[in-house]
Amino acid sequence: MKKVSFKLMMILLMGVFVMASCSDDENDDDDVMVEESNTIVDVAAGNPDFSILVEALQSTGLDDALANEGASFTVFAPTNDAFASLLNELGVSSLEDIPSETLTSVLLYHVLSGEATASQVESGYYSTLSDGPQEGYTLSMYINMEDVMINNRAGIIDTDILADNGVIHVIDQVILPMSITGHAVANEGFSSLAAAVTKANLADALDSDEVTYTVFAPVNSAFEALLTNLGVTLDDLTADDLTPILLYHVVDGFVPAADVASGYVPTLSSAQGRQASLQVTVGDGVALNSSSNVVVTDVVATNGIIHAIDEVVTPPSVVDIALDNSDFSTLVDALVRADLVDALSGEGPFTVFAPTNAAFDDLFSALEVTGVDDIDVATLTNVLLSHVVSGNVASTDLSNGSVPTLYSEKSIEINVDNGVVIDGQINVVLADVQGTNGIVHVIDQVIVP
What we know:
It comes from Marinilabilia rubra. InterPro entries: Adhesion/Biosynth-related (IPR050904), FAS1_dom_sf (IPR036378), FAS1_domain (IPR000782). Keywords: Signal. Residues 1-20 form the signal peptide. By secondary structure, this protein is α+β, with helices and mostly antiparallel strands. It has three domains: 40-171, FAS1 domain, CATH 2.30.180; 180-309, FAS1 domain, CATH 2.30.180; 318-443, FAS1 domain. It has 15 helices and 21 strands. It has helices spanning 2-30, 40-45, 51-60, 62-66, 80-90, 100-108, 180-186, 191-199, 220-230, 239-247, 318-324, 329-337, 341-344, 357-367, 377-385; strands spanning 73-78, 111-113, 124-131, 138-144, 149-150, 154-163, 166-171, 213-218, 250-252, 263-271, 274-282, 286-288, 292-301, 304-309, 350-355, 388-390, 401-404, 411-415, 421-422, 426-435, 438-443. The strands form three sheets. Strands 2-1-7-6-5-4-3 form a seven-stranded mixed β-sheet. A seven-stranded mixed β-sheet has the order 9-8-14-13-12-11-10. α7 (180-186) packs across α8. The chain is elongated, with a radius of gyration of 35 Å. It starts with a helix and ends in a 6-residue tail after the last strand.
């Protein structure tokens, strides 16, 4: 009996051991660890002070995008107090009162592509994920790390909250996409420009989203140099003084750096009933009127794009147009030798048919001389005045016929049947470069009386 009981006990124990082993195997399967997600959205959802942000992300469907573990983001995350302040500023009671499209744009304006910890963030402009006014370009934000501010609006109050797909920096205000005027106001480096725009009553025009502009924005040092050269202060200049200068820095449409090309472009500054021309030269960098350099490009605003420049450019006279273009250096030498610079810098208006350096070289070869110094002043004066017509005559206003020049013994024969041709053989190769006191048409030969 004892032997039977002992065998039975052994069998039972073995059964228990086998069952326990099987159970352990099953438990091992159940205990396989599933790695927890810790995306930016997870981190925000785990912090009660980001509950409104999470609600906003969910309502716009951006939560899935920011939970993408295959991407990397830097998020400037507004606190609940920041959102409460925004709602109060907008005069609305909840996020539901903000159109979804607008809220999406605002939220994406807080997101940069790629992970940038606090030590990697420097003062400057950053492209957000919020769409700009032209496809392929996103809105810019300005971060000032000296003041630890974004757009001179939101303070960065905590940094480097790491997630699996990026990093979060906490801010105390919701940042809003900015217009051209908004960018000028937000960056202390443009404070002189902002003051001038305000004094000229142009702030509203450059704030409007109904039009799109490209602005070449002078930095403060550029304005300081201009005022010093003029011997005045900003207070000494009236709105009428400032308006043509400021509008000379504005071009219609959205022109990013990649699309900038050498040539003349019409600005919004009025001259002789037309738009004053701005010369753009693309080489190692971009220069305006041969003296002002583009130092920062592609600051994208809601209504256009800004390129910062290091010198204020002013609307040119016909003489300035020649001075600013190296291809007219021989013409300038001739004007100086003939003492015509002051005359053609006068009130005008003048229409100038301007020969290129190559045109003068051909003339010198034909005359078997080396340059303007080999031509007597009286002859040179008559030649130059043969290139000038009274009035501001655009190419579209030219017609077939004889036109008197400022040299009383020379009229030029104009033919517009196939382009603009002078005296049967001289071609206008570039037309309608508009100055303050007249207009310039570039020609490929020198007009000889």
